[in-house]
Structures are given as structure tokens and as C-alpha cells.
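FAQ: What does a multi-protein file look like?

Like this. Sequence, then C-alpha cells, then the next protein.
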Amino acid sequence: MRNYLILNHRKFTIHKISLLLLSILNLCCQNHTTDSKNEIQKPNILWIVAENIKLDLGCYGATNVLTPNLDSLAAKGVKYTHVFSTSPVCAPSRSALMTGMYQTSTDLHNMRSHRDDNFRLPEGVRPLTHRLQDAGYFTANISQIDTHIVGTGKLDLNFVNEGPIYQSEKWSDLSGHQPFFAQINLPEAEYDIYDRKSAEKERVKWVGEDIHPRIATPENVVPPPYYPDHPVVREEWARYLNSVSGIDIRVGYILKQLIKEGLDQNTIIIFFADNGRLEARGIHWLWDTGIHVPLIIHWPESVPSPPQYAAGRTNDQIISLLDLTATTLWIAGVEKPLGMQSRNFLGTSPDPPREYAFSARDRIDETEIRMRSVRGEQYHYIRNFTPGAGFLTLNRYKEKCFIVKPLMRELFAQGKLEGPAAELMQPFPEEQLYDTKNDPFEIHNLAFSELAEHQNALQSMRKTLDNWIEETDDQGGIIESREIVNPFIKEMHDWFGTPSWYLGDAMIKPLDTLQTN
């Protein structure tokens, strides 16, 4: 009897175990099915990236531009007004975006660095697209839709040894590979320089200049007060604004194709610029003109939206463009990696909001200048680490393409500049402080003001920058060797030429002596 009971107990136990295993197997299958459904239900994500523009769209109040597609996107989505790039130039900014880390923390801060060495990203730092691919996303970097050129395929990252960044460059691959993360790098606004023959040209044209709508004209534009009122300035300002209108036309092609293929119903669209405005006092510099960028996020009605989202809403919180990395991961259902400096600003449990956005300028092309910026809701603090540097410091790309700069140099020599334009010709002070609410053009430096409010802001932001430099392990103080910098001198000379006024260092010697073996 005892043996019988034991036998039956064993049979019962085996039966229970079998049922338990079956239940676990069934649960796993259900979970797998649920996971598969979740994969299907994950939204597509589309980054539309403009080159070198500030908030110069109709939806932001800009005049002499025609941007109906982006205005409509903003009216149906959320428009952000206080977004600042981590760098005033493309490669460091894009490198930060693709990693979710400040470029100054990862040795990606100097322009177009690590293109021909064995540099690898620090341990734990990976390209955003690789993280998304691990989560089941198909990734693509698109340049053409049917016969329409909508992008350049530009990456411009300061790391090249991490394997392929994207899986495709074809728009036609998207509909059959969902969910997808796609990036379209718009051609505008930029000078047409990539034939590398700029030195031979009398004037370097803007990309698309001959086909852009002529909404802005030299007669109807009003350039900022830090420029002289001069025909050349007005012509260039009109060309820039017309480039913005050209951006909108390409965005229209993209939006139309999304609708045509039904992809608009499950695609979250994020429009932004990689850095600030293409103007002489814009990109390369840490004034708002170089780092203040537009951001529009559009959520389709069929995809549940976060509590921060409402059609037509304007968001004024301080956001670093860096934060798009973690926010994109959140949209994709991917947890932000430990140590990532990017902050997610969406969802029911977003990261803490920023009080300040930090930006950094380091070597750009052959021009070695180090500057740092702290941007708050009202005040903007800029520190210069390179004594003697200023707006007039040589950069061959800017001397050749940004014709306002040599014009101002000439007018200054003739004593024909006054006010903010004349002040711009002076070397940068060590510190600058601007009240952006009362001085949107940032032409009144308050660093030397005796008002208590200004001194309090100066001291607070000075300390904030010191802390940020230490906490983020800012590597900008490490000087690049001449073996790294000298080839850029030759490259920029061959590409853009060297102005006749420049009589500096070894540049006047035979340029081939500057090449390294």
C-alpha cells in the first residue's frame, strides 16, 4: 500500500511538473506572441535634419520665408522654442546626437577628427542606430524619394570604426521593414562646397540657390544689427531665408510620400537642425545664432502620445539637442543606458528637466579656438579659453564662402563700421553674459555690468560651467598635436584658398611641407 501511494505520489508529482512545464511553455509562447505584436505596434521614427538654421520658420514668427509644410507639422504637433545644440558646427553636434554623450566627454569635440586613425568609442558608448537595431528597428539614411533629392546621406561623425551606422539608404526599403528608424539629412542650408573647387570660384553659391523660391529679396529683408546695412549683407540674408523656404519644399516631398504609402499613420516625425544659422556670426560661434535650433515633433493619432504632447502646443522648456537620443530610445521602448548624458523629456517618468543647456566650440577645420556656453531661460554665459581669438580669426571656409566677413573686414579697415558691427571686430573677452529676453541679438555684454542681478547671474553661471567641465570630464583642454592640425591647414587652403591679407605662421611656406607622413 505504501509503495502504491509512493508510486501514485510520484505520478501526481510528474503530472504536476508536466502541467507546470506546459504552462511555462504556453506562457512563453504567449509572451513571444505578445512581443511579436509589440514589435509590429512599435512606431516608426523619422528624423528630418536641416543643416544650419535657427528658428527661421513661419511657425516661429519668421518673415520673408514660405514654410507651409513645417508650419502645418507644428500646428498638428509640438513646437519647441528653447533647444540648443551641443556644438555650433555639424560633426561634433552629430557625434553627440548619435551617441547620447557630450562630444567633449568622448573625445569627439574637434571638427572632423578621428577620420583616419584607430579611435573607438569609449566602453559602453554605442551609436544610437545600433541600440535601435538591437530592439528590432530597421535603420536607413535616405537621400532620394523617387526622382526627388531630399537628403545628402550625410553622417559626418567623428568616429568611423564602429561598423555600418545604417542598414539601408533606400526609401523603398522602409514600408517592408517596420518598425524603422530613418534619418533624412536635408541639403539646405549650406554653401555648395563639396566639389572642393571653392577656391576657384568668384562666389560660392548656396545649395539649391537657383531653384529656391524668391520670397526674400535684398529689398524686403532686415539683417540683424550686428551687420552693416550693405547690399552684400542684404543679398546674403535673402539667400539664407530662401534656403529655408527650399527646406520646406523638400519636407513637403517627404510628408507627401509618407501619406501616399500610409506610413504617416504609424510614424513619429522629429524635425530639427544640427546646429545654428549659416551666417558669419552664426555657425562656429556660441551665440544663440550658432546653437539655437528649431525642434518640431509630430505624433500620429493612431499612436498613443505622451502627456507632454498636444496638437498645436508650444513647449518653452530648456532642452539640449543631445536629449533627442534618450527621447528617441524612449519612443522605441528602449531603456536609456546607465551613464548616458542625454535626457529623455517625454513620457510619464521623464528625466529631470534641465535648468541649463551646455555647448562647446573647439577646433573647427584649421581654426583652434576653445569656448564654452551655458544657456538658461533668460541669461546666456559664454567663456573664451583662447586669448586674442575673435570673429576675425582666420577660417578659410568662412573667409571664402561667407562673403559678409571679408566685407566687414574691409569696411572696418576703412573706418566705416560703427555700433555692434564695429564691436564685433574686437577680440573676444574672457567672459560674455547676455540677457536674451531683453537683448535677443546678444549685442550687449553684461559681464562687466555692476547691477546685482547681472553679477549674480554671472557668478552663478560661471560656477555652473566650472562644475559641468569637471563632472563631464571635458577634454577640450587637451591640445591636439601639430601632426593632427597641420594637414587641415593644407586641406582648407587647397579647398578654399588663403586670403591675401593673411601672413601668419608656416602657411606662407610651401604647403606640401606641412603634410605629415
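And here is the next protein:
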Amino acid sequence: MKFAERTHLLRWTILQGGLALAYFWTGKLGLELAFMHSHVSPVWPPTGLAMGAILVFGYRVWPAIVLGLFALTMSGVSALPWPAMLAIAFGNAMEAIAGAWCIRTFSGQSNPLFDAKTFLWFLGAGVFVCTTISATIGVASLCVAGAASWETSRQLWWTWWLGDATGALLVTPFVVAVFTSDFRWPPRAKVVEGVIVALTLALICYFVFLDPKATEFRGFSQTLLLMPALAWAAFHFSKLGLSSAVLVVSLVGVWGTANGLGPLAANDANSSLLAAQSSFGLIAGTILLLAALRAQQRRDEKQLRYDQELLRQLIELQEQDRRMVAHDIHDGLMQDLVGAHMLVQSVPIASDAATEDSRVNRIAGLLQKAINEGRRLIREMRPMVLDEQGVIEAIQHLIADFEEHAELVIAFDHDVKFERLEARLEGMIFRMVQESLNNVEKHAKAKYASVRITQDGGQLKIVVRDDGKGFNPAKVSRRRFGLRSIRERARLVGGTVQIESEPGKGTSVIIQLPIVTTLASRSLREESDDSRFD
């Protein structure tokens, strides 16, 4: 046998043996609370252990579940017939396999807290539905084998199902988080926050579940004191931290209730534990759903930051390409055209050569037209004045060009305190003004427009107005390229764009930008501590 095969076999054996031992000992703990029947407990963490293991390691771990259950059954106070043991083992393995299969198939994920959709599939299929497999097969096997009476089958089924369901709900997210989390030591502030939340939960658990005086105040409402601290953990801590907190709090509550302490303790121990499990299931379901929603929100925010950074880079590359092409046209093609134009104009023409003179003039006219077109392309791609003198001078040249070819009178006014801004930010401002004036030229049918740029501390306000035909902003698609381009550029630097327009009353484009924020967008500097510890 090759070394790689031996290593794989050793790992497989360790995995199966470790999972079987874990199943056995957690089952032992659960059976310590089996007050109604020696084989039926309202607290059954092995269900969550098995389902979590299958979600992490795959269906190959089912032998460990069967092995652990066999060992647990044989070590019990009363042994069961082999057919009943086989049926119960089959039911326990099938509920874990079916639950994991439903979660993976219908949500496409293996982590119950990945997002709200995955958690709801986990809650509906894994917790509520698939756990009925083990409860139904198990209770029927006990009754058929004579280990339980059919008269108590309903209560046995409810106890079995609730133990499996809460075990799946409380333990599965913890097991998945343990084996899939990329643990990093959190920053000091997060550690302090975690200690405060842990101490808060410890105090609440003591006064609600462990203080002998707590039995004087009976009722489910006392357990709701846990909700604020657990909700805080759901929004601020990792999946591992939250699932650990929920599991530990539930264990403390179960221990206190089993010992006759807390608001859920009653004369009948089994009924007390059923009430405790129902309460913890409701609390855990709510808190874990909040955690799944928060995880989805964090992922969406991270994707949004990534998209913004990608868009920023694309715009930057576009500006670089425009600058390079503009320089190439200016230093290459334009020089040749200007040289050819000057050469044609210097050609001596005889006074009687009217035809040749006409041709030379036509050639000179065509060359001049090509020169003007080249200059226009340079201005639209990347005006030299923008790099050499700044955005204010570039906008003045832009307005002069519009007034020349668009038959449009444009007033320009500015009141700013800066001389130059970061080059990429200047490019953004120029493009937004340029796109706004392009919209005026193409769509507004205006005769007069104005551009006003003012600075108020670290805020820059750009207002582009026209007296054109106007429109209803609510009826214009947000996918319209011109307006969308302005909005996206403003959003990349943390700015906002407001469109004010009415039919027949012109249009105003109001842009507000934080000029102290560079284009190294906050996504690069604000990778929040929370997202690092998801």
C-alpha cells in the first residue's frame, strides 16, 4: 500500500473513530436526562453532531453514526433486541443524511448560517421535517419490541422529536463553524466586547437559571432576558462565537432546569425539559436567523465594495488609455497633419494656374478640418490642460468648446479654495461636468446653461443647470448611460447626485463630493473587523 493511501486510510479511521466517540459521549449525556424512558431523551445533541459532520465531511461518515449509536444502546440500562437497534440506528443515520441532503440540494450551501435562505431550509427541512424520521422509526421500534407501550407512544414521539430537533438546531451550526471557520485572533476592542457580552450572558444565566430564588418567577418570559445580549452577538461576532454562545447558554439552562432551578422547572422533570427545549429552540431560531441575515448583509457589503473597487480601476484604466491615445494623437498624427498643412500652404501657385490653386486650397481645407477633428478628439479623450493646469481650467476650456460647436451659451462660476486636487479625482469631476453638458446638448434643446462649482470645507458642490425642455426624473430609466455614469462616478468617491427637473422648466444636476477623500476607496481601508471574523 502506498504512503498516500495509508495516510488517507489513517485519516479516515481517525475521523470515523473520533466522530463515533463524540456521538457516544454526547448521547450518554443526553440519556442522563431520559426521565420518561431510558432510550428517549428530550435533550439529544448527537443529532446536531451527526448532521453537522455530514455537512462538513460528507456522507462517508455515516458508519460512525451507526457505530456510536450501537455502542450507546448496548451500554444502556436495558438492552434492546437487534432488530430494534438496527431500526433506530437506521432512523438516526437517515435523519442526519436527509437533513444534510435537503440543505445542500435546495440552498446550495453547507453552512446553515451562510444566508437567510440556507438557514430557512436548515430550519424547515433539517430541524422540523427530517427529525421526524428518527422519532417515528425509533418510537415504533420501541413499541414493536415491547420496550414501550403504544399508549405512551404519542408522548414518547413528542419527546424524541423535540430532543432531535433542538439538538439539530443548537449543535449543527456550532459543529459546522468549528470545522470551517478561519480563526484569527481578534483585535483588542473585539476581545473586550466579547468579554463584556460573555459576562452579561453569565449574569443573566445565573439569575434566570441557577439562582434558587429564580424558581419563584415561573414562565417563559424570564428566558427572553437572553435575547438582547445574544442579538448583539449575532450582529457583532463570528458564526463560531455566536453558535458557541447559544449552545453554552442552552446547556446552562437545561442543567438548571434538570436540577429544579429556573422559571421552567416543574414537578415533572420531563415536562420541564420539554418546556426548556421549546424555549431555547425559539430563542436560538430567532437569534440564528438574525445571524444568517447579518452574514448575508456582510457578504453583500463586501461584494459591493469589491464592485466599487473594480469599477474604480476600470475607470482609471479608461482614463489612462484615453490619456495615452490623446498623447499619441497629439505628438504623432497631429504633428504630421499640421506639418502637411503648413507645407501645402507654402506651395507657390502660378497666377494662371487657377485649377491647381483650387486643388491646393481644397487640400489645405481638408487638412485643417482633420486638424480640428483631431483636436476635438483630444479634448474629449483627455484634454492636455486637465493634466497641466487642473480641473477648473479644463472645465473652462470644455465650456468654450461647447459654446463654439453647440450654439449654447454657458455661464461658468466657481468659488473654490484648492489649486489642484488628486489627479484621478480631477478626472472624475471633469467627466461628470462633461457628461452633464453632453446631456444638455443632446436632450435638453436648451439655449442657456450654467456650471457652478463651490467649496464648503471638505465638500465640493457642482451644479449644472439648463433652460431646456426638462423631463420627469421618475420616468427616466436609471440604466440610462449618461445619468448612470454620473451617479457611479460620484458614488465611487462617496458623493451623491440629485436630479431636479420638470417638463418645460429645465433641469438641474446637483453633485456633492467629499474632496478630502481620495479615490483609494474606503473599501481598501475599511475591511471591518466583523467581516474578518465571519
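Q: Is there any per-entry metadata?
A: Some entries carry free-text notes. For the entry above: The CA atoms of residues 129 and 234 lie 25 Å apart.
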